[in-house]
């Protein structure tokens, strides 16, 4: 599987879900803890009220005013060392009882409370310098109104941490599991949802100048992507129109330019004259060639070649040699052909390959010295070489010569510098290549390399696609 | 010799007629498929030069029709190169040769003559190349005014080279033509015959020469003046 990109929907989903779960977990924990504190507090206040009322029940009238008569168990519960403390005062502010006595001393300084409970906090009280939370209230008792203050050491944290611990043990462990499961389901859904997208990507990859009629199907596509597909299809419609216009222009330009050129050529041929006429003829010949090449380039740009027919390289190359031999001989150059016995079959476009070879041979003839021989050879492996006896190509120019409109300084050729660019375009259309190297005995050697067997080549290119589709 | 030129561009038609006239032909020009059909049906032409893109249809249709009617007139097609690629050359439809536009007038005349030099063609009985003449009926070859005595096989080779003057005759074609004459044709028979023939022509002072296109075949070309 290919590594996930940062823009991958799956990765984004995983990351964002993980963040969401982390935040949700944190919020849930915070709420639980707050609740725990809150509950603890409410419970504590209720408890304090109950205890205050409890204490008030044991206030009995005595000879010297009210006194507190605690049952032994209760008294024991309030023994020092306990977390609970209390102080009971009479209506006159006299401390009737307190545990520990120090608390009585503290409380004695306070004003008497009303019958509505008022809450207080103590910090650093007692031998352990503990913090206390308590309430102070005036209650009716058998001995008349008495002021009771009860407090408890702040120990609610224990409850809260117990709650949190419980929460983590019982509930929070589910969170990572949930993250994994949800992200997993999310990714599966996305994958499934995006499969049609991958399919239309494959379709889109086949769209090119040769196949402008292909449109993307919105079948089974997620609704969110349908508008994009529709927009792409509309863009393709416009592109197809553009290509059609260019094709039409190419055809029109061909016709419009060729006819006057043919007339001029014929007129010049018919004229009798001096050296000026010969020069004019060669100028027109050059113009003819440039127009042909320009149209050829325009055509290659506008319409991709159909390279699906079976072509015998041996046949095509020898036909080109046969066709160009009279012209080469007229230029006082020789031309020779060598090929293996039997056909050299490849998949391609016969006319385009013929054009490519013709371009190379014409160049070679034009760059050869008088009586020089241009050798065209075909190799069984699907290669066509054209070797000349000319000055050769300097190594620094070996890439440049394939550029459009590039012309060497020697400029022995009379073209527009398009010939080799055309050859390379043709080879690209065949998924082949062209290379140039010095000839074994000087000169330049151009080689067109085709895949020898188109079926094998196709199998090779299809295989990796299938493999990646399986692992994707 | 009378030719029919089917070309819708009047300037080109005019130029073709005058150029062909200078080369010794009489050329009638028509501009449409309909006229071409009618004229072909009425007059016995020696050859037709046909432009494919005509205002009222495709020149290929005219060829097909003529051939179906048993008209074996030599037909030379004029066409733009991309048109050849789009159709299958026109040769399958029955055209005898084609020329890609724009063409040189000299090439057109050479091709036309080559068509007429075919056996049964208007130039098919007396072949000429430079100062070589070949009487295909008497099978006499003369260079200048001198009769050249040639063995049978060399005569046959020369005939094919002269019928396709200025164009390459593949070695395989020559082998095929000679096959009937020899019970067993040795692999180097053709090169040997051509070698002898070439020397005899040179020695006889011929103004046309046999060139070898190594790996493909041979061609007879008139020497440059």
H/E topology pattern of chain B: EHEHEEEHEHEHEEEEHEHHEE
Number of domains of chain A: 3
Estimated structural class of chain A: alpha+beta
> Over the alpha carbons, how many angstroms does the gyration radius of chain A reach?
50 Å
Strand order of the largest sheet of chain A: 4-3-7-6-5
> Could you tell me how far the N terminus lies from the C terminus of chain B, measured between alpha carbons in angstroms?
26 Å
Note poorly predicted spans of chain A: 454-472
Sequence-ordered SSE layout with sheet pairings:
The complex is a heterodimer of chains A (472) and B (225).
Chain A: H1 9-57, E1 59-62, E2 65-68, H2 72-77, E3 84-90, E4 95-99, H3 101-108, E5 118-125, E6 130-141, E7 144-153, H4 156-172, H5 174-205, H6 226-270, H7 275-302, E8 309-312, H8 313-330, E9 334-338, E10 345-348, H9 350-367, E11 373-379, E12 383-387, H10 419-429, E13 433-438, E14 444-449, H11 454-471
Parallel strand pairs in A: 9-11
Antiparallel strand pairs in A: 1-2, 3-4, 3-7, 5-6, 6-7, 8-10, 11-12, 12-14, 13-14
Helix pairs in contact in A: 1-4, 1-5, 6-7, 7-10, 8-9, 9-10
Chain B: E1 2-6, H1 10-22, E2 26-30, H2 33-42, E3 47-51, E4 53-54, E5 57-58, H3 59-68, E6 75-80, H4 81-86, E7 97-101, H5 105-116, E8 126-129, E9 132-135, E10 140-143, E11 146-148, H6 152-163, E12 168-170, H7 171-179, H8 189-203, E13 208-213, E14 217-222
Parallel strand pairs in B: 1-2, 1-3, 3-6, 6-7
Antiparallel strand pairs in B: 4-5, 8-9, 9-10, 10-11, 12-14, 13-14
3D structure, described in words:
- The complex is a heterodimer of chains A (472) and B (225).
- Chain A is built from eleven helices and 14 strands.
- Chain A is rod-shaped.
- Chain A is of the alpha+beta class and 472 residues long.
- Chain A has a five-stranded antiparallel sheet, sandwiched between helices. In chain A, strands 9-11-12-14-13 form a five-stranded mixed sheet, covered by helices on one side. A two-stranded antiparallel sheet of chain A has the order 1-2.
- In chain A, helix 6 (226-270) packs antiparallel against helix 7 and helix 9 runs antiparallel to helix 10 (419-429).
- In chain A, strand 11 (373-379) and strand 12 form a beta hairpin.
- Chain A has three domains: 28-160, Beta-Lactamase (2-Layer Sandwich), CATH 3.30.450; 193-304, Signal transduction histidine kinase, dimerisation/phosphotransfer (DHp) domain (Helix Hairpins, Orthogonal Bundle); 305-472, 2-Layer Sandwich (Heat Shock Protein 90), CATH 3.30.565.
- By secondary structure, chain B is an alpha/beta fold.
- Chain B folds into two domains: 2-116, Rossmann fold; 126-222, Orthogonal Bundle (Arc Repressor Mutant, subunit A), CATH 1.10.10.10.
- Chain B has eight helices and 14 strands.
- Chain B has helices at 10-22, 33-42, 59-68, 81-86, 105-116, 152-163, 171-179, 189-203; strands at 2-6, 26-30, 47-51, 53-54, 57-58, 75-80, 97-101, 126-129, 132-135, 140-143, 146-148, 168-170, 208-213, 217-222.
- In chain B, the strands form four sheets. A five-stranded parallel sheet of chain B has the order 2-1-3-6-7.
- Chain B is elongated and about 55 Å long.
- The model of chain B has no long low-confidence stretch (mean pLDDT 85).
- Classes of the chains: A alpha+beta (472), B alpha/beta (225).
- The interface between A and B is medium-sized, with 37 and 33 residues.
